[in-house]
Amino acid sequence: MPRASWRGYLRLSLVSCPVYLLPATVRTKPIRLHQVWRAPPAEQEQDGGQNARDRSAPRLTSDYVEYRAGPATRITLRPHDPNTGEELEKEEVVRGYEYQRGRYVTFTPDELKALDLESSKIINLEMFVSRGEVDPVYFNSPYYLYPDGEMAVEAVRVIGAAMAEAGVVGIGRLTLSRRERMVMIEPRGTGMALITLRAFQEVRPAEFIEADSDGAIDTEMLAIARAIIDQRTGKFDPSEFRDRYQEALRELIDAKMKGLPIKRPEVPTPAPVIDLMAALKRSLATEAPAAKGTTVKKRTKAASDRRQRALLLPVSGGGRQKREVSMTAAVAAKPRRKA
């Protein structure tokens, strides 16, 4: 079990119980690239000048990149005196605030410790709100909140069960890493989850372009877009997502270690959409085909004459019945609104 990030008390009015926090997420181990000093090859040192710089640079061809470089040594960054360049001891480095250019006020650990607030040790549930009232854009870091000891188990379960029955989440304050933040606490099974919230000043207001209130959305375009969404609707499974950049970086490392040519991947650039209706229809045509066993719903001759056969979509009906409908047949009778 990882080390607790915080220990203290959860308080609801006069009821307090000891709790501790564990991060709800883990950092995957990424491929780390270090700063290194690359020595020039021997022949480059002899030639020098522009020719040496030309040979040390990557040589680009149509299908791969060839690197010629000398041996590399990892560098280290250490605190040093900016005037003399002399390396400083860790004990000589303190925290300070620059109130004027080049002038600082410094603090001792005891002085900073004296600033601790009640929220450094106690999460006071100050209010309760509906979960939907908290905009996810304010979410910062998630934690699991556990009872700290057997005596706290019952209190945590009772508070969590009461919140679940009321359909609310708790809002309180918590000081972590010298920052007091609002936190949201919600029941999670027999325990709770805690999410630190960003401050109001940390969230930028949305600046979306206001649409013309008089311009209605084209119903046929809306129907096609909804059909594409329905075709791709499923259940969220985070295990299906992977870091493709890290995978490509690993392949690059393996290729360079083995001295293999490095292929340059082609990243297509989407073409700008000139005709939105045409783009929607092409997108719909590329979606997955209809499931087997679907049947076409009977329509009157007039209706079948108006529909566009290229836009027939499979739509699952209630129970075992399945039917095939045209997303535009329902709106074809209504003329499109001119821009």
What is the residue-mean pLDDT, rounded to a whole number?
Answer: 76
- The CA-CA distance between the termini, in Å, is 61 Å
**How many distinct beta strands?**
17
Q: How many strands, which pairing sense, and closed or not: the largest β-sheet?
A: 8 strands, mixed
Widest sheet: strand ordering: 9-1-2-11-14-13-12-10
Structure description:
With 339 residues, this protein is α+β, with helices and mostly antiparallel strands. It has helices at 42-47, 49-56, 109-113, 150-166, 219-232, 244-258, 276-285, 301-306, 329-332, and strands spanning 6-12, 15-23, 36-38, 59-60, 64-66, 72-74, 95-100, 103-107, 122-124, 127-130, 139-147, 168-176, 179-188, 191-197, 262-263, 312-316, 322-326. A hairpin with a 5-residue loop joins strand 16 and strand 17. Helix 5 runs parallel beside helix 7 (276-285). The protein is extended. The model is unreliable at 52-67 and 290-335 (pLDDT under 50).
SSE layout and pairing:
Elements (H helix, E strand, L loop, with lengths): L5 E7 L2 E9 L12 E3 L3 H6 L1 H8 L2 E2 L3 E3 L5 E3 L20 E6 L2 E5 L1 H5 L8 E3 L2 E4 L8 E9 L2 H17 L1 E9 L2 E10 L2 E7 L21 H14 L11 H15 L3 E2 L12 H10 L15 H6 L5 E5 L5 E5 L2 H4 L7
Task: Please name the defining characteristics of this protein.
alpha+beta, 339 residues, 17 strands, 25% helix, single chain, eight-stranded mixed sheet, 9 helices, extended, three-stranded antiparallel sheet
